[in-house]
Amino acid sequence: MRKKKRPIKYTEGKIFSSLANLAWPIILANILQTAYQLIDTFWLGRLGADAVAAVSISFPILFLILSLGAGLTLAGTVIVSQHKGAENQAEVNYSSSQTVFVIFFISVLLAIVGYFSSTPLMKLIGAGPEILSDSVSYFQVSSLGFIFLFMFYVFQSLMRGIGNVLLPMYVVLATVFLNLVLDPLFIFGFGPIPGFGVAGAAVASVVTQGLSALAGLLILFRGKRGIKINFSEMKFDFPWTRRMFNIGIPSSMEMSTRAAGMTVMVMLVTSFGSEVVAAYGIGSRILSLIVVPALGFAMATTTLVGQNIGAGKIKRAERIGNLSTKIAFFGLTAVGLILFFLAEPITAFFVPNDPGVIRDGSLFIKIMAPSFGVLGVQQVLNGVFNGAGFTKASLLISVFALWIIRFPMAFVLSNNTSLSFEGIWWAFPISNLIAAIAAFLYYKMGHWKLRTIRYRHRQL
């Protein structure tokens, strides 16, 4: 009889091995999820620059609405990871059930708001008459998928909290391959299936999101993968929900701040025409793909720090932060340098027949690429703060980087210098560097450790 494989304990052993075991499946899952947008951009690029622009202009608003609930799923990760570190399985299951229950109601509300506010939102952000109809239809269909998307986010977050990161990756892998087939089918049509154009990309994503949410919930209810949720524990528990909101709301606000910053940047970009919007959309998609390793290490760091704090190992949690920071800086700096030299062929891959978009999009990538290492530092340190339950630190750093540095600088450089829209491109690396310095200095001050120690003393 074959022995059952022992689960990995992330509160002991080599830190690098723990990071690697957690990070690579998260990174791959995030790359695959980003592939949804990249696949959309690839096929929509065959419809023309206006189709790419219609999706690009709606993406920041979609991200803004999603972030309002996504921060609460991070709270589920933090709470579950700390209970896992304390080896309290009953609380792991209860907290998971509560997270599913709360996020479901929030996702329903956001789906309704998103669908019925689509037209005024697209007009507010500056969608021109040539892309308004497509951007609205894409946004409406995407809003209907919020419930499915949030339920899968919950599944991912809870699994990450206990250190089970392979299973969500397998689910994402299957749905991305399905999306690869469904995208051209619903965009262009085939046989009896009509082509929906730009909205077809959203239809394909909603179908795959629904299947991934169903798979995730079935796994959680069966309870054979380290977490078992129960309907009997899905009722309003106001003290628990208050704790979830205390951790999750700053994280939601941090994500919302980034999304709002993206939205305002798009409003600034739209004043330069749809060609520049398309270039910005391609550059933003590439940026979202390249920061995936940083986000992966940040999420792995959150889980490790959370579990070690739950086990009372504060010094080990700090060593985790130190190592993650070094890996993110040197690794993403190398990736950025490679991307610098491949900027033009990558841009041409998405919009092959538009020299203006290729020129502007590749320039955006070249300007951003050298700063990817410091962007990684900021993300990983946010992971440390989140794992300690100190999500307000991430919020303050994001507000500083986006609203005090990036947007004002982009506005001034693009409207008051000869750089024109290129000034928007330059605001990205400058704000990345300043934010990383601020996060690193705050991390070294050690307030997150003192706060954690005080919290543990109150619990004893």
Characterization of the model:
This protein has one domain. Helices cover 82% and strands 0% of the residues. The radius of gyration is 22 Å and the shape is globular. It is mostly helical.
What structural category characterises the helix and strand content? mainly alpha
Order of helices and strands: HHHHHHHHHHHHHHHHHH
User: Given the C-alpha coordinates, what overall shape results?
Assistant: globular
How many domains make up the coordinates? 1
Rg calc = 22 Å
Helix content: over 70%
Number of helices: 18
Mean pLDDT, to the nearest integer, reads: 84
Largest sheet: none
Topology:
Elements: H1 15-44, H2 49-85, H3 89-116, H4 118-125, H5 132-144, H6 146-161, H7 166-188, H8 198-222, H9 238-270, H10 274-290, H11 292-310, H12 314-341, H13 343-350, H14 355-368, H15 372-387, H16 391-416, H17 422-445, H18 447-459
Helix pairs in contact: 1-7, 1-8, 1-10, 1-11, 2-3, 2-5, 2-6, 2-9, 2-10, 2-11, 3-5, 3-6, 4-5, 5-8, 6-8, 7-8, 9-16, 10-14, 11-12, 11-15, 12-14, 12-15, 13-14, 14-17, 15-16, 15-17, 16-17
Question: Gist?
Answer:
This protein has 460 residues and is mainly alpha-helical.
What descriptors fit this protein?
18 helices, 460 residues, mainly alpha
